[in-house]
Amino acid sequence: MGHSKPEIDELVGAYPVCPQCQGRSVVRDAWAEWSVAAQDWILKTVFDEFVCDQCGDSIHPVWKLDQDFRKKRIQRLNDDMRAGTFRHGSMVLTAGVQALEDKLRAALVDQISRFDAFTKDNDPHGEHDFGSIEIGDKKFFWKIDYFDLKLERHSPDAANADVTHRVLTVMLAGEY
Ligand SMILES: [Zn+2]
Predict the structure, then answer these.
(1) Cα 25 to averaged position of ligand 1 atoms, centre (Å)
(2) Among 64, 48, 52, which Cα is nearest to 23's?
């Protein structure tokens, strides 16, 4: 089974750039059709050609990724995952966490859902994918990993909730 990596223009945050002027005003001709339901003109056909609005030339755009946009999307999806809102996801409690008293485990899960003490040190990539929590004399970690929907490989695009199964793992610090 081949691993089909998505093309860059299929990734969240992709945008076309003019190879001549590096500008982002790449446009295409299209036909729109009136929709009674939408009370608006809806795109019907987008033609193959790309034109740079700045140069006025027909071009072959270069696709780039807006990494800041991707980071913010991943961050939001991870925050939503901890808060219990997700399209595809699951929570894994390690043996040590499963063995906790119910009350302590419930307090831990609650604190993870509300955790927001992110810093440059504990969240260097800005993805909100890791945190540590102390309750009493016990220290815990939580982390979020990105898998494909079959849980066989890494997600093809962690910024896309449709193709990513997020796994939130909760562990004792000593189990890391
Ligand atoms: Zn241009």
Answers:
(1) 8
(2) 52
